[in-house]
Amino acid sequence: MQEAAKPFSQRALRWLQRTPVHSFLLAPLLVIAFELALNRGTLTFVPWGIPLMIWGFLQYKFVGGYRLPLAGGTSGMDAMPNRIIDTGPYRLVRHPIYTGFIVMDLGLAVLCGSALALVGVAVITVGLWLKARVEEQFLSEELGTAAYGAYKARTPMLMPRMPLERARWTRKSL
Question: Is 0.70 surpassed by the pTM of this model?
Answer without folding.
Answer: yes
